[in-house]
Amino acid sequence: MGTRHDGTGADGVVRGGAGAVPGHIPVDEQPELTSGTAPEDAWVRSFWLWDVYFAIGYLLAVGLTLADESELSRRLVVVAALSAIAIGYLAVGRRIMRTDDNVRHRLTFLAAVLAAFLVAVLAEPSAGFGLFAICPMVFMTVSLRVAAVIVAVAIMLPVLSAILRDGVTDVNLAMQLPISGMLVAFAVFIGWWLDRVIRQSEQRRELIEKLEASRAEVSRLSHEAGIAGERERLAAEIHDTLAQGFASIVTLAQAAESTVDAGDAQTRKHLSLLARTARENLAESRALVAALAPSALETGTLDAALCRQLEQLASELGARVDHQIDGTPGPLRTSVEVVLLRAGQEAMTNIRKHAHADSVVLRLAYTESAVCLTITDNGAGFDPAEPTDGFGLRGMRRRVEQVGGTLSVHSGPGEGTRVAVEVPR
Question: Is there a contact between 403 and 424 (Cβ–Cβ < 8 Å)?
């Protein structure tokens, strides 16, 4: 059955780059746990067994009614009422009991079934055999407590019908009442078992969905971490080796050129060519370092990249956004810019997915020794102390700590969320 999000359930009324990547950086995507379609729980897959059971119950009740020796008109009324229940089950009831979460649909279907059964049992008490099919329908439609009350009343209806038709003297209450009591107890036990099966099926389906979502998030984060880590590694390697080497060559060439005799034109020419070539390759190395920065930073500064992300969030959610800069922006290490950008993206992703906020404030503060990024929303909030199924905050914290920074999250249910990242410059 579909997961209920309407506050009902068993306790309510209705159930409800180039170079090899280092070995410690995971870049291979995780295999999918299942196919891309949503998992169908065991309850839905095996519902055909209940189709067979209801068909047998209907045929048995109709057969016993036709075999009874009561008036033909009464028997025809019973058959018509039971047939109406069977048609309603095939038309809408089966879908409602399997996957429909709508409270009104469930209550309307159940009211129609009970009304038809009441007509049948008032016409002929032997229609009570139809309870073998009707009782499971009740337990599949409403919560266990409500269903137990309805089933108890329904089981007593044939006895009351017989009393109304034949009088108390013609009904052996000493036998009927204990039998009815045992039937109520048995029906409630079956209902409890059905409720437990349905709940376990829903829980397993939800667990599979959470596992799939977690695997997909792990795959995404691992892939992004691998790409970002390799880009940063290559940029650092080029900067610390090739770029520094070319800069040293330029300096040495200029120093050698100043010591050459004025008449040695050929040597001066070669040294000048050496210095020029080194400058050109130094420029190329620096261009490579810049090109290996994250794509969001290629067309502007960190502040501009975060502003674009914030504007995109505003257009998607229709939320009010505010972008603040404190202090004097200055050049930052590529690793620091990457961490701040990724942290901002992750915080805004969480707002988009979970917070349902209508106001978001992004503040980027520069001090002499550090940069602090703060993103605040007025959304649903959560309890940071409770364990979560996702890896976003954990991955964000790990990245921040790798550059010597700190991450703090302040939130509470209904109080919004504030994520603050502070990293050294």
Answer: yes
Confidence check: pLDDT of 304 > 50: yes
170 alpha carbon, distance to own chain's centre: 61
Report strand pairing: 370-377 vs 320-326: unpaired
Order of strands across the sheet with 370-377?
320-326, 359-366, 370-377, 417-424, 406-411
Give the pLDDT confidence of 340-383 residue by residue, as tens digits. Answer: 988 888 888 888 878 888 899 999 999 988 999 999 999 888 88
Tokens of 316: 């998607």
**Mean pLDDT of the region 72-80:** 89
Instruction: Give how far the C-alpha of residue 39 lies from the chain's centroid of Cα atoms, to the nearest Å.
Output: 13
CATH no. of 297-424? 3.30.565.10
Question: How far from 26 is each of 107, 229, 235, 389, 398, CA to CA, in Å?
Answer: 52, 10, 19, 20, 14
Tell me what percent of the residues of the chain surpass a pLDDT of 90: 11
Cα separation, 117 vs 106, in Å, equals 17
User: In angstroms, rounded to a whole number, what is the distance separating the alpha carbons of residues 96 and 131?
Assistant: 19
- The mean pLDDT value for 246-265 works out to 74
> What is the enclosing helix (H) or strand (E) of 322?
strand 320-326
The span from the CA of 140 to the CA of 372, in Å, is 54
More confident residue, 263 or 341: 341
- The answer to whether 155 touches 184, Cβ cutoff 8 Å, is yes
In the block, residue with structure tokens 């009351």: 160
Closest listed residue to residue 202, CA positions, set 51, 98, 106: 98
Confidence at 292, pLDDT banded by 50, 70, 90 = low
Mean pLDDT (the chain) is 76
DSSP code, position 14: B
Can you give the C-alpha Rg of the chain in angstroms?
Answer: 37
Measuring CA to CA, which residue among 127, 46, 49 is closest to residue 81? 127
Interatomic CA distance for residues 306 and 339, integer angstroms: 12
Nearest alpha carbon to residue 203 among 414, 377, 1, 422: 1
pLDDT band at 166 (very low <50, low <70, confident <90, very high): low
Helices within 260-333 (DSSP H only): 265-291, 302-317
**So where are the chain's domains?**
42-204, 227-295, 297-424
| Partner residues linked to 373 by β-bridges | 364, 421
Residue 249: predicted pLDDT: 79
What's the average model confidence in pLDDT over 243-268? 74
Dihedral through CA 86, CA 92, CA 95, CA 96, nearest 10? -100
